[in-house]
Amino acid sequence: MKYPKGAKPGGQNAAGIRRRKDKEVRYGSRGMTLEKDLDFANSFYLEHGRAVIHKKPTPVQIVNVDYPSRNKAKISEAYFKVPSTSDYNGLYKGKYIDFEAKETRNETRFPFINIHEHQVQHMHQCYMHGGIVFIIIKFSLYDETYLLPFEKFLPYWERFLNDGRKSIRYTDIKEDSLSLKTGINPRIDYLAAVDEFYFENGE
Amino acid sequence: MKYPKGAKPGGQNAAGIRRRKDKEVRYGSRGMTLEKDLDFANSFYLEHGRAVIHKKPTPVQIVNVDYPSRNKAKISEAYFKVPSTSDYNGLYKGKYIDFEAKETRNETRFPFINIHEHQVQHMHQCYMHGGIVFIIIKFSLYDETYLLPFEKFLPYWERFLNDGRKSIRYTDIKEDSLSLKTGINPRIDYLAAVDEFYFENGE
């Protein structure tokens, strides 16, 4: 195996690698992505009959399909499409639930990069029709995850449309969101926060 | 332009094509697929603020992505995945709605081909959690479309699991379903049938 100069594992001169490891430990990142945590939580909820919530497939524009054999279809040309809805939706306690999940490595703010206007419109429509709608935001350098109810997010989005401010400050997220505690099974139990915010009176 | 022998458009000898045309007229097929009709209905409902219902993207397993230029990603190898949920879901009158749509050219029965066990499990879970769940079935040779509530579909599915009977008779579909009238705007107004079956008392 070839290592870059001075980067042999366990070697005395592996400063580059060591530094990166230290950084990981310091910021508490476990190398688990938010998406995996949410997939895991959704499987857990489904198995335990608590909710039926799925991530939608990535929207893809299929241009060309080959049939190398009779029963096999191979997509040989396709492109990613801009999603027109949010990534997650489903059913919890008889209610429609809809959310988007975003991760940022930014330390001071949550930038609106990767949130498409179509997605926000979609969430707004769901909210207006009586759905439970929110955004899950992970600050990965802190390993902190927040659930921001759509009604709290909306003023920031409107400010962006009016004044062009493309982000929400970390401190504002902390103020307006529910903090998601990190557990074991599931690691991120976001429905606990949904209960707290949307079903206060134990409905 | 090259035409197959004896198939010139408008020609005296275009018997093959003529016959197909006659057949189309006789069975009343308009050449519109069910999926297009439902897409149209869903756009119509969304524009008029009546419901927020979307078709999910086709699930695809992406194996390889090329970057011919810096900002362009081309998927060069991918495969269709078996869907684990139904194709359509959303929100109507504050309720979670979930359905699958199938078209058949069969004249006497609706075969369970293309309905995956995972999808039925998913619909069952949604039903148990209080969602509005159904299957839209189109007999394309008759241009007739039916909405079969999940609770009416379930006994047929259980019969299939027990006795292996892989279809529902056309006459049974007629008996257990709501017939979807064909209109203009939208062509298939399936929410009218949802109102009739699920919101009888004008809720």
UniProtKB/TrEMBL annotation, chains A, B:
Q: Which UniProt keywords apply?
A: Cytoplasm, DNA damage, DNA recombination, DNA repair, Endonuclease, Hydrolase, Magnesium, Metal-binding, Nuclease
Needed cofactors: Mg(2+)
- Which free-text remark accompanies the cofactor? Binds 1 Mg(2+) ion per subunit.
**Name of the protein in question:** Holliday junction resolvase RecU
- List the catalysed reactions: Endonucleolytic cleavage at a junction such as a reciprocal single-stranded crossover between two homologous DNA duplexes (Holliday junction)
The organism's taxonomy opens as: Bacteria, Bacillati, Bacillota, Bacilli, Bacillales
GO terms of molecular function? crossover junction DNA endonuclease activity; magnesium ion binding; nucleic acid binding
Q: Give a GO cellular-component term.
A: cytoplasm
- Sites where the protein binds Mg(2+): 85, 87, 100, 119
Stored Pfam families: RecU (PF03838)
InterPro entries from the xrefs?
Resolv_RecU (IPR004612), Restrct_endonuc-II-like (IPR011335), tRNA_endonuc-like_dom_sf (IPR011856)
- Site feature location: Transition state stabilizer: 102
Q: Which family does it belong to?
A: Belongs to the RecU family.
Q: Which example biological process does GO assign this protein?
A: chromosome segregation
* Protein purpose: Endonuclease that resolves Holliday junction intermediates in genetic recombination. Cleaves mobile four-strand junctions by introducing symmetrical nicks in paired strands. Promotes annealing of linear ssDNA with homologous dsDNA. Required for DNA repair, homologous recombination and chromosome segregation.
Task: Map out region (Disordered) in residue numbers.
Answer: 1-22
Give the species.
Salinicoccus halodurans
What EC number(s) does the entry state? Answer: 3.1.21.10
